C-alpha cells in the first residue's frame, strides 16, 4: 500500500480558483498551494490578488477578470493556462447572494445571481475539460450551499442557483467522469466571508445559526481545508457527482 498521506498531495497539479480575492476562494488558493499545486487565482480585484500571490509565493499567479464576461471566456482560459499550463483542477468559489425577498426580486438581480453562481461554473468547466480529457485526470469542485436543499428568507434567487449547482454537479459527473474527471461540490454552512457578512454582523443571528448545528458553532475557514483537498486529490478518485456538506451538521438536524 502506498503512503495514505500521498493521496492528498497535489504536487505536479495545476489548479485555478475563481472568487479568489477573499473568503473561501482565497483560502482555497492557500490550501491547494500548500498541498503542492501551482495555483492561478482569478477575481476582479487586482490589488487583493496581488497581495494573495505575494503572500503565497512561487508557484502562484493571478488573472484579474470578470468571469461573467461571456465574450471574454476564450481569453480568460488562455490567461489561466499561460503561467503553468492547462489546469487539472478548477474550484468555482465566485458567487453572489443578493438577499432579496421573493416579492422584490428583480430580473437584473436574478440574472446576476444565476449567471455567477451557475452559468459561469458550467461554461468555464466546459472550456477547461478538453485539456483534462487529454490527461485523463481532472477535478471540478463547485460550491453548493445550505440553500441547495433548504429555503431561507430572502434567498429565492440564491437558493435556485445553488439547487442548480447540485444537479449540475451530478450531470457533469455523468458527462465527464468516464474520462477521469470527477465533479463534486462542497456545501458550506455559515462561514465568515463577504457573502455572510450580514449574518456575522448580528451576534444574535450568528449564535442562532451556531445552535442549529450538531457541533454547536459556525464554520471557521480552516474547516474547509480537508474536504477541499479530498475532492481535489487522488483521495476522491471514486467519488463523483456528490455534494459534501461542510456545515457542522446543520443539515443533519
TrEMBL record:
Query: What's its EC?
Result: 1.1.1.69
Under PROSITE patterns, the record lists: ADH_SHORT
Write down the superkingdom of origin: Bacteria
Q: Which UniProt keywords apply?
A: Oxidoreductase
Which molecular function term from Gene Ontology is one that the record holds? gluconate 5-dehydrogenase activity
Enzymatic class: oxidoreductase
Q: Which InterPro entries match?
A: KR_dom, NAD(P)-bd_dom_sf, Sc_DH/Rdtase_CS, SDR_fam
Q: Residue limits of the Ketoreductase domain?
A: 13-189
PANTHER family tied to this protein: 3-OXOACYL-[ACYL-CARRIER-PROTEIN] REDUCTASE (PTHR42760:SF133), SHORT-CHAIN DEHYDROGENASES/REDUCTASES FAMILY MEMBER (PTHR42760)
Q: Which family does it belong to?
A: Belongs to the short-chain dehydrogenases/reductases (SDR) family.
Q: What is the name of this protein?
A: Gluconate 5-dehydrogenase
Which organism encodes this protein? Answer: Tritonibacter multivorans
Instruction: Name the encoding gene, please.
Output: gno_3
Amino acid at each position: 500500500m502506498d503512503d495514505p498521506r500521498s493521496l492528498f498531495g497535489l504536487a505536479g497539479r495545476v489548479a485555478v480558483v475563481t472568487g479568489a480575492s477573499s473568503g473561501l476562494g482565497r483560502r482555497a488558493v492557500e490550501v491547494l498551494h500548500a498541498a503542492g499545486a501551482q495555483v492561478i487565482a482569478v477575481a476582479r480585484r487586482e490589488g487583493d490578488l496581488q497581495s494573495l500571490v505575494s503572500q503565497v509565493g512561487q508557484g502562484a499567479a493571478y488573472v484579474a477578470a470578470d468571469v461573467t464576461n461571456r465574450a471574454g471566456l476564450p481569453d480568460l482560459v488562455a490567461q489561466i493556462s499561460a503561467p503553468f499550463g492547462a489546469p487539472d483542477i478548477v474550484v468555482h468559489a465566485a458567487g453572489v447572494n443578493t438577499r432579496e425577498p421573493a416579492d422584490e426580486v428583480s430580473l437584473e438581480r436574478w440574472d446576476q445571481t444565476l449567471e455567477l453562481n451557475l452559468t459561469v461554473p458550467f461554461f468555464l468547466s466546459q472550456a477547461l475539460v478538453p485539456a483534462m480529457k487529454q490527461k485523463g485526470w481532472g477535478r471540478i469542485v463547485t460550491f453548493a450551499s445550505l440553500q441547495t436543499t433548504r429555503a431561507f428568507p430572502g434567498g429565492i434567487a440564491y437558493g435556485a442557483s445553488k439547487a442548480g449547482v447540485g444537479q449540475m454537479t451530478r450531470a457533469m459527473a455523468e458527462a465527464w467522469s468516464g474520462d477521469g474527471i470527477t465533479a463534486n461540490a462542497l456545501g458550506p454552512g455559515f462561514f465568515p466571508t463577504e457573502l455572510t457578512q450580514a449574518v456575522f454582523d448580528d451576534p444574535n443571528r450568528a449564535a442562532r445559526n451556531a445552535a442549529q448545528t450538531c457541533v454547536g458553532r459556525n464554520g471557521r475557514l480552516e474547516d474547509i481545508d480537508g474536504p477541499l483537498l479530498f475532492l481535489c486529490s487522488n483521495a476522491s478518485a471514486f467519488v463523483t457527482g456528490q455534494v459534501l456538506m461542510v456545515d457542522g451538521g446543520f443539515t443533519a438536524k
